[in-house]
Amino acid sequence: MLYDFSVIVLTDIDGNEVPDAKLYKTIANIVWKGTQNLDLVDVAMKINRGESVDLGNSDIATIVALVKDPKCGVFAYAIKAFLDYIESVKEAGRE
């Protein structure tokens, strides 16, 4: 499936967009630093440039696990936005 992490919008508790939030850069860094899969190194570079990436179930599961890892330091509201985006892409792919 095709994922474009640059479209993820972070909002505060009142639903206001967090200005200049670039969660995709954080995701790219987490993948870059945490993966042991050489293919995901190239994926991290594409994510960092704001490009869409075509990921299979195994790769997206790896990225989700990396982002959800408490050691990565991502706040819960950002993880929720990330997971909501992943789910929306999967749902769109089922239609």
Task: List key phrases describing it.
2 strands; single chain; 4 helices; 95 residues; mainly alpha; globular; two-stranded antiparallel sheet
Give the gist of this structure:
With 95 residues, the chain is mainly alpha-helical. It is built from 4 helices and 2 strands.
What do you see in this structure?
It is a single chain. This protein is mostly helical and 95 residues long. The protein has helices at residues 23-34, 38-48, 57-68, 76-94; strands at 2-3, 53-54. It has one domain (2-94). It has a two-stranded antiparallel sheet. Helix 1 runs antiparallel to helix 2 (38-48) and helix 3 packs antiparallel against helix 4 (76-94). It is globular.
Topology of this protein?
Elements: E1 2-3, H1 23-34, H2 38-48, E2 53-54, H3 57-68, H4 76-94
Antiparallel strand pairs: 1-2
Helix pairs in contact: 1-2, 3-4
| Percentage of residues in DSSP E strands | under 5%
Low-confidence stretches: none
Distance between the termini: 13 Å
One letter per element, helices H and strands E, the order comes to EHHEHH
Proportion of residues in helical segments? 55-70%
Q: Calculate Rg over CA atoms.
A: 13 Å
Q: Average the pLDDT over all residues and give the rounded result.
A: 95
Categorize the overall geometry. globular
Summed up, the helix count is 4
Major sheet: 2 strands, antiparallel
Count up the domains: 1
Count of strand segments: 2
Helix/strand-derived category reads mainly alpha
Spatial sequence of strands, sheet with the most strands = 1-2
